[in-house]
Design a protein that fits this description.
5 helices, 162 residues
């Protein structure tokens, strides 16, 4: 380049240095072509933005579903309180409760049960009938066979009123 035009030692040395620099640039480009370029960074940025929007929409949908479930649960409870409870209504309520209960964490499930059951008494040794539970004591009266009981003995068929 320069050496063909100027034909001096300085031009020749500078031309050789320039050729070496271009070769280093070519080698650098070839060795780093696995790195992402600006276009790919832009594509990743756009995909990340799209994903963020999608996640936001999913969160909004989840909030909507949670509200619908809560509203449905509250409506069913209100319906049960206002109407005469039929076997079908109880069955439908249990199906809805089953769905809601399955969304609880293990800790929430345990706390829920503790709200209903004060304690469970068990036998020290396994009885002949195989049932370890002696009786269940509830936190409030429960309707059983037309009576309200707080303690449900399982050692016999009878129940004790409180």
């Amino acid at each position: 380049m320069l050496m063909t035009v100027l034909r001096c030692d300085l031009a020749i040395n500078e031309s050789r240095a320039l050729v070496r620099t271009f070769k280093k640039m070519k080698d650098y480009i070839l060795s780093n072509k696995g790195l992402i370029d600006q276009r790919e960074v832009m594509q990743l940025s756009m995909q990340t933005a799209d994903n963020s929007i999608g996640i936001h929409k999913l969160r909004m949908d989840l909030g909507s579903v949670e509200k619908q479930m809560s509203d449905e649960w509250n409506n069913r409870l209100l319906s049960v309180r206002q109407e005469k409870i039929s076997a079908d209504n109880v069955y439908q309520l249990l199906l809805a409760f089953d769905k809601l209960y399955n969304t609880f964490t293990e800790v929430e499930q345990r706390d829920f049960m503790r709200a209903f059951i004060e304690r469970i008494d068990i036998y020290p040794e396994k009885p002949d009938n195989g049932c370890w539970i002696r009786n269940i004591v509830f936190n409030f009266p429960m309707p059983v066979q037309g009576k309200e009981i707080k303690r449900l003995p399982l050692e016999s068929k009878s129940t004790v009123e409180t």
